Amino acid sequence: MANMNLVLVGVSHKTAPVEVRERLCFPEPKLREALQELKSRYDHEEGMILSTCNRVEVLVNTTNLDDGVRQVKDFLCDFHQLRYDFLKKFLYDFTQMEAIRHIFRVASSLDSMVLGEPQILGQVKNAFNCAQTAGTAGSVLSYVMSKAFFVAKRVRSETGIASSAVSISYTAVELAKKIFNELSGKTVLILGAGKMSELAARHLTSSGVSRVLVWNRTYQRALDLAAVFRGDAIRPEELFKHIEKADIIISSTGASSFILNKADGERLIHLRKNRPVFIIDIAVPRDIDPQINKVSNIFLYDIDDLRNVIDANLKQRQREAQFAEEIVRQEVESFLNSAKAMDVAPTIVSLRNHWESIRQQELAKSKNRLGPLTRDQEAAIDTLTQSLLNKILHGPISELKTLSRNPAAKEHIETIKRILGLKDR
Amino acid sequence: MSLILLRITIALYSIGLLHSFLTIITRKKTLFRVALFGICSGFLSHAWSILYTWRETHLPVSNLHEALSFFAFVIVLAFLLSYARYRLESLSVFIFPLVFILTLAANLISSPQQPLPEILKSIWFYIHIPSTFLGYGAFFVTFAASVMYLIQENELKRKRPQAFYYRLPSLEICDELGYRSLSIGFPLLTIGIVAGALWANKAWETYWGWDPKIIWTFITWLIYAVLIHYRLSAGLRGRRAAFMAIVGFFFVLFTFIGTRYLGTAHPYIQR
């Protein structure tokens, strides 16, 4: 695109600590004002600002790349009243294709703190919408961003970058699904009415677990928590009467010794006729004897086991990220190719050269027929033909320039080139 | 003609096998469409090949070449039925290596078509053999589901997820598939055995010849009977059920191929 001069300046969790990021943050109410200033103060044609807790990035389409980088940096300093010497070591800047690659990676969550986390795409979309409402997003930004959303979608659907859980609660849900396949119709038993177990239970119920049982040493607290989930409380002395109903047990009591041992586990499985039980022990010190995991059809995970699963999941994401990087590479390349096709400058040059050579030929021919001419006369003929040519070419050239600003006009440009007999150079 | 079709079949099955593995390794579900195309079109050409011989002579199960091909065919049928119900891409990785080997062996072993002896021509032929084979096909699905169960269970017990954890279905599904295929396979094998006895009575005037193949089939049947019994009565499931199903299938294989070397006089090896 002839008029694409992209500059991106920003800080992220990779380059700057939170103390710096928070000072650069653009809160939503101030965003519009910032965008207006970004556009009006400098000769940027378009601009957008992405401001999240992990990154602040300013993307502009400007007229001059070198000035653009400096201007955006100035803007960041001025707007937040920070000194450039302080800020410069945290800032990164990208131009043109590098900027596009960066945007594609950010939107695809390849640059996120938690690789593959899904929120970033929404945040990027939101930033673009703000720029649109503020009137600072034009055709180039629209084109670039629509490509970025497309790339993010491709990455999400073609790689498993976001497919495995990376939080304790979701990992517990995921493991439960690996055992029971479906959680609907399952019963979860909470041992010890603590905050952590409440959170885990909340994730399980929102994933389909239908019944919640609560057991606590003080009955009243069990009743309170059971009320939250519209479940049932178990009396302190009746735990073993009801424990067999539970498919999933979350334990976080303050007990100083094990409340379930291997023999309990064997009895439990016998009572359940071999139906599996998933036990999550998030208490420290632990509530459940680790030996219970040896009982067939019992699966016990303590807090460290869950962390191990998260680590493995993160490694999976990293492996998937390699496929995602390849997708980004392909898409940047295809963007580059279409941008090349959009570039009308070579077309204009060859258009001029083509007509200029015709003019010269015709001039040479006419000279013989006109006979000897004075220097002034020669100059006058030259000016005449020159201005004739300029007038004729003015229309097509300015039309080409207008078209080149519109990314959808690629085919028109091709057609014009063909009509004028110009080959791609 | 049927041999050419069988060549085409193995080519298509190899496409299916290869892409099944690629699907599981890369976890790109789109690749499985290619695998499914290979499997389905292979199945059709396989069916054509069998029907072709059938029209010329009789149901082609009377020599080793035909029996191997027919066994592969019923396994693919069992796979397609399981896939229609459960949509498990990973199952194909456990099923198709054997299908490939059986079809390949059938391609390499060429035995002459033997006319069925007059004495054996009976409706029981069309009940005894297909239902026994279908039962074995179902048992192979049970076997594959059990292997998948044991691998996934091991992943969950070791608590350090590796490649299989992400690629295999849940324990519940593996167990359910194993149980379902078992409860379809068992009646089929039972029908096959009963039909065989009735057929034997008609042809040789004895219900029970002490042929090694018959004895081993009966042992196989007993193993599956015990497994079904414990599943129904004591809620046996999971690991132990999976182990038994795997052992059971080794008996199936031995009954199917191994008994040849014990000097059996069983039908398709009448020579």
What does this structure look like?
The complex is a heterodimer of chains A (425) and B (271). Chain A folds into 3 domains: 6-158, Glutamyl-tRNA reductase, N-terminal domain (Beta Polymerase, domain 2), CATH 3.30.460.30; 168-309, NAD(P)-binding Rossmann-like Domain (Rossmann fold), CATH 3.40.50.720; 344-419, no CATH class. With 425 residues, chain A is of the alpha/beta class. Chain A has 16 helices and 10 strands. The model of chain A has no long low-confidence stretch (mean pLDDT 88). Chain A is elongated. Chain B has 271 residues and is mostly helical. Chain B has 2 domains: 1-114; 116-271, no CATH class. Helices cover 79% and strands 0% of the residues of chain B. Chain B contains 9 helices and no strands. In chain B, helix 3 runs antiparallel to helix 4 (89-108), helix 5 (123-158) runs antiparallel to helix 7 and helix 5 packs antiparallel against helix 9 (238-256). The longest helix of chain B is centred in the middle third of the chain and has 36 residues, at 123-158. Chain B starts with a helix and ends in a 15-residue tail after the last helix. The model of chain B has no long low-confidence stretch (mean pLDDT 88). Chains A and B meet through helix 8 and helix 13 of A and helix 5, helix 7 and helix 9 of B.
* Euclidean distance between termini CA atoms of chain B: 24 Å
Strand content of chain A: 5-15%
Which spans of chain A of ≥5 residues are poorly predicted at pLDDT below 50? Answer: none
User: CATH homologous superfamily name of the largest domain in chain A?
Assistant: Glutamyl-tRNA reductase, N-terminal domain
Tell me the number of strands of chain B: 0
The total tally of domains of chain B equals: 2
State the major sheet of chain A. 6 strands, parallel
**Unreliable parts of chain B:** none
Number of strands of chain A: 10
Note the run of SSEs of chain B as H and E. Answer: HHHHHHHHH
Mean pLDDT of chain A: 88
